[in-house]
Here is the input.
Amino acid sequence: MSHAPRFPWSGQNSETRLEASLARLEAEATASAVFTKALPDRARTQAKAAAAKASPLSGALISVKALFDVKGETTTAAAKVLQNEAPASADAPAIARLDDAGGVFVGITNMSEFAYSGLGLNPHYGTPHNPTYPGCVPGGSTSGGAASVAQGLVDIAIGSDTGGSLRIPAAFCGITGFKPTQASVSREGGKPLSDSLDSFGPMARTVAECELVWQMMAGQPVVPSEPAKARLVVPRNFGFSEMDEVIADGFEDLLVQLRDVGFEIVERDLECISLYEQVPPWHMTSVESRAHYEALFQTAADQMDRRVHSRMARANEISAVEYRQTINRRQKLIAAFREELGDDLLILPTTPILPPRLEAVTDDADFNRLNLLALRNPSLANVTDACSIAMPYKNDGHTLSVMLVAKGGSDQKLLAVAKTVEAALPQAE
Here is the structure.
């Protein structure tokens, strides 16, 4: 018999919890760069209405990444060049569903400009404080979303994931981030980065919370999955080079613990990695972002994050034919990945590195190197059109993150297995 999970929010306590959160936004310096805009009027209206809504989400405090349309607000994608655009006439469909279910929108969260970075810096709105690793980058691009949950300002953060942008900040801030299969959640009403790779999904404290919000965003029946097990594959030929020692040690310790609770774990090379290496993600992100923002790229470079502009500029390095060849190879890769993985799930560290200190990414060369390292492991799920989840655990005093990946369309199975893994993850005493 299924038992509905207990959540920390309710329609009855939403107004009290909201006012506490809004007060913290006013008072705490560490909250200053988390939101690009708070939404106190709308949130208070939603909180008043929450008690009357018979929904498991009713009263949950939610933050919304700045690339989603929120009715009456300008959708900036945390880009200065979009600040004067007309306000959105309606919520994005995935966001509207959360409003209908009794969600309380505390504010719009900061992000890497146009979602084009895995580290989370923003020269226009500042960089959100990382409460788990103070003085370090929060991870991107959903930087403010992760910080809003990790700081306890909200229960749920809604974001996007093009190469890890829900899972990298979740890993760096010590929370859970879920990248669903791309097709499961409508991308209407969201500012795109890459049409090929973008997915929309949630971050929260637990797998159950992510599952609930994803089901609602996707317009699916809200049915909690029963925890389950599956064979876990450690792909030793991908994701394990250039690792920080504490991450490598923590992961090996975790494998022992998961075997102890009955998981079958096999270690083998993924044959399709040879195909994966022929599908550079930057071909898609640079060309497809330029397709959407070409006029701004050409005329407003001085108002853009120069690092974002330089990544968009890489579209000039490939021809239309080369781009299409990459898209064709990706389709072959997706099919090969699905067949090779089958009903198994991949397990690997979410990122090979701990969050870099802010001073370590001031130099462009260092920034680019660390950005690529942060993106490396999670990007696999985007390029293979898979689903993936990152979950926090403790090892030797460090907050680390483990990632599961399942073939596209297996979201419900992934979440069910993630619940069993989550229950075995070591946490702080």
User: Anything to note?
Assistant: The two ends are 31 Å apart (CA to CA). The chain has a mean pLDDT of 97. The longest helix spans residues 320-341. The chain is about 40% helix and 15% strand.
